[in-house]
Amino acid sequence: MDQPVDLIGVPMDLGADRRGVDMGPSAIRYGGLRDQLESLGIDCTDSGDIGVPQPEHCRSESDIEGEAKYLDATQTVCEQVSERVREIRATETVPLVLGGDHSIAIGTAHGVTDRPTGLLWLDAHADLNTPTTTPSGNVHGMALAAILGEGPFSEMDWAHAPNIRPENVAVVGLRSVDPGERSLLESSPIHAYTMTDIDQRGISTVVREALEAVTTTTDQLAVSLDLDLLDPSEAPGVGTPVKGGASYREAHAAMEIVAETSTDLCSLELVEVNPILDESNRTAELACELAASALGKRVL
Q1: From 197, 228, 231, 289, active-site residue
Q2: Cys-Cys link to 269, which of 39, 97, 143, 285 (CB 3.0-4.6 A)?
Q3: Which stretch of DSSP H or E encloses residue 94?
Q4: What is the pLDDT of residues 263-273, one digit of tens each?
């Protein structure tokens, strides 16, 4: 890849039930991300971390119908992420956003939507709950719904990213979908691919099809990788592990295909790394490897 990369850490765990993902950016950096990218000849800088308040200092409840824990604080953080991403994009640099829970994707999406944008969402979960359908109230399970303006998010300018349209979104790796999310997917033009699709058709076919679907009528591509895409045997240190996920090689193949696309990569996210649950930082190190594959690393 010819473009330079700028790292942004977002040590956020307000959107999740389980503490620990706030340490994800540090773990990924410690795993050697910058060294791996610079070894590819990529000019890589680090903008440091966005400030995130501790949950003990935040109001948990919100003033909307339904439940969305720490929504006000999440808005504040996502607005900062959006501003930082927008500044980086203005220098023709790719922002590489390190989480933190997946709610930070709301901020990244707003930072890149200066043009029609395709979104590849790699995740065990759909993240399409709204405050009225969520079983938990955790905003990391609503991130994609917020970006697409579903439910009460349609009235929240900080959340709804109008340049990302449902027909230009593909979710790959699904294996844990709540009833409200299933209903939305059945009525939406979102392109949804389960692990069964990957089992039956192969990761390469699925990812290529997903990328074609989201980039045909868009100018740029955003990629959001939740490390729980992978099976917990490969990535034990994630916020919400689900059995039956992608293998090590399937995840690398997906990222290598991302690198092959001719569409401009406008952002890359690595989220939900939880060092507390990890084994010798192996999930964070895997995140570094996958980012390198998405940005052009090959065996030969």
Answers
A1: 228
A2: 97
A3: strand 94-99
A4: 999 999 999 99
